[in-house]
Amino acid sequence: QVQLVESGGGLVQPGGSLRLSCAASGFTFSTAAMSWYRQTPGKERELVAIIFSIADSTNYSDSVKGRFTISRDNAKNTVYLQMNSLKPEDTAVYYCSVNHWARRYWGQGTQVTVSS
């Protein structure tokens, strides 16, 4: 079965950095598009970044472009989200996600709090 396990969240000061990891299993990771979403209370889940299997091409939301970098390690079945120049508005629960056989799967989420 598909499993996604995020790690790396925490409390960081504005301007700081964090790296999130998502360990995946239960599907062929190397051929899957992997994405990171985030959600704050009362708001819909927002797509932050996606990395495709072809040429590791990527897309980012405008709110994080130039500050966040998504990457993948197919040997480790892991996708990463490097977050730099963090802002208080980046505070959210971050979720790793994959669409597998027309069903979207989610990890349990990891809390990122940006505050002084």
Give the biggest sheet: 7 strands, mixed
Q: End-to-end distance, in Å?
A: 40 Å
Order of helices and strands: EEEEEEEEEEE
Proportion of residues in β-strands: over 45%
Helix content: under 10%
Structure characteristics:
116 residues, four-stranded antiparallel β-sheet, globular
How would you portray this structure in words?
By secondary structure, this protein is an all-beta fold. The chain contains no helices and 11 strands. The strands form 2 sheets. Strands 2, 4, 5, 6, 9, 10 and 11 form a 7-stranded mixed beta sheet that branches. A 4-stranded antiparallel beta sheet has the order 1-3-8-7, with no helix packed on it. A hairpin with a 6-residue loop joins strand 4 and strand 5. It starts with a strand and ends with a strand.
Show the helix and strand layout.
Layout lengths: L2 E5 L2 E3 L5 E8 L8 E6 L6 E6 L6 E3 L7 E6 L4 E6 L8 E9 L2 E4 L3 E5 L2
Parallel strand pairs: 2-11
Antiparallel strand pairs: 1-3, 3-8, 4-5, 4-9, 5-6, 7-8, 9-10, 9-11
